[in-house]
Amino acid sequence: MFAPRAWRRLVIMSLTTLTWDSSCENQSNAPQNRTRTWGSHQFNIDKEPCRKIPLKPALWSQLGMNDYLENYPGGSKITLQEYASQVGATDFFPGIGEHPHSGQLCEAVKGRDWYALVAAQNWNSFVNSLYDSAGYAYECPVCAIIVDFFSSVN
């Protein structure tokens, strides 16, 4: 289980692993409730929460996600799982060996909440990969030790 503020940082980090797109690199960090531009289209995430936006590292800042999560009602006292449940993702269970799924945009969760859960989902997948790779890396020396031990006995 993540500490309430720690999961927010982890979510941010997961979006930074995506590749940059030149169309979003030069976008300014507008305040969260203003209209934003992606290409030639303008929209307001609060008025159009189901509009799909390409996942890019710059998107986090463009949507004002830090401010949104910092000011989420009771956000400093809840876990990521409780947050997911509050916004409609009742089957979202993050953790080592778990595979949380936020669903499709506006299937159950809308707008900034969906983007936050997708970022947490991606971070969880990354951490699971690290955990699995550490386990596989540990298996190789153990096998070599066992082989060396039995070959020296014979």
Automatic annotation (TrEMBL):
Species this protein is from: Puccinia graminis f. sp. tritici (strain CRL 75-36-700-3 / race SCCL)
Segment forming the signal sequence: 1-21
Protein name: Uncharacterized protein
PANTHER family associated with the record: LYSM DOMAIN-CONTAINING PROTEIN
The organism's place on the tree of life at top rank: Eukaryota
The entry's keywords: Signal
